[in-house]
Input
Amino acid sequence: MQKYQMSALLKKLDWNLFGMILAIFFIWRIGTVGGWSKECWILLLVCLIGVRKDQIDVDWKKFFIFSIPLLAVFYYFYGSGNSFWWSIANKMFENNRHIFRWDQYMNAIPLNTGGWARWIANEHLDKAFVWIYNYGFVLSLWICIVRSFWTRSIKKMMSYALSGHLLQFPLILPFYNLILLREVWFVNGQPDLLGRKFADQNELLVNVMNCFPSMHTSISFAMLLLALREKDKLFKLIMVPYCASIIFSTLYLQIHWLIDVIAGMLFAYGVVKLADGIIYLVSNKLLPEKFRGFYRRKSYSPDSQNLAA
Output
C-alpha cells in the first residue's frame, strides 16, 4: 500500500517544472563561475527570444533525462577547465620544446601586426573591445550551448561543445608546443591594452605565448558557422556580429597577428567538419537502435521526421 502511494505521488509531481528549475540552476552557476557581467546575461536572454523557431517537438521529460546530466558535465568541466588549461600552459613553458620561433618573422610581414585595426581607436571602443575579448572566449560558446538546450536538441548541444573547446583544446596543443609566437604588443614593446597585471616574469611569458593559431578566433568562428545553421533570424543577427567582433578584438587590442586570425578561422572550419563527422558516425552507426528511437516526436505528421535532431 505504501509503495502504491509513493508511486502515485511521484506521478503527480511536475517533473517538467523540476527539470526546468534544475536547468536554470546550472545555467546560473555557469554564469556565476564565469563571473558574467549583467551585459553577458542580457546578451544571453536576447539570444533566447526566438528559440522556439529552432525547437524540436520532443517531450521535455524525456529530453531532461539526458540533457540535464550533459549540462552538468559541461558545467563541471567549465569549473575545472581553466585551472587545467593553465597547468598545461605552465608545463609547456617549463618543458620548452618550441622548434619554431616566429616573433620576428611575423613582425616583418606588412599589415600582419593588425595595427590598421587601431585607426578607429578611441576610449569607448577600447573599453568595449576589452569586454568583448575578456568574455568572448567562453561566452560565445555558452550562449550557443544554453540556447541549444532550450531547443531540446542533444545533437546541437554536442555539436557546439565538440566544435568548441572539447575538440579544439587537444587539437591546438601541438601547435602551441611547437611554435613560439608571442602577442603583438609584447613583441613590439607596447602597453598591454587589456591592462593585465602579472605577478612575475614567468607569468607574463606564459600569458603572452600560444598565439598561433588564435583560439579566440577559432572558438568564435566555429560558433558563427554553427549559428548560421539556425532558423531564428534574430539569433543569427546577434551572433554573427558578436562572434565577428571577438575576432576583430584580437587585432584591435594588438593581441594576435593577422595570420593567427586567418589560421584560427581555417582551424575552426576543420574542427566543425570533424565534429559533424563524429556526430553523424555516433548517431547513425554506433548508437544502439533503442536510443535512436528514444526521442520520437510527441505527434506525427507526414511532413515531419520521426526522430528529433
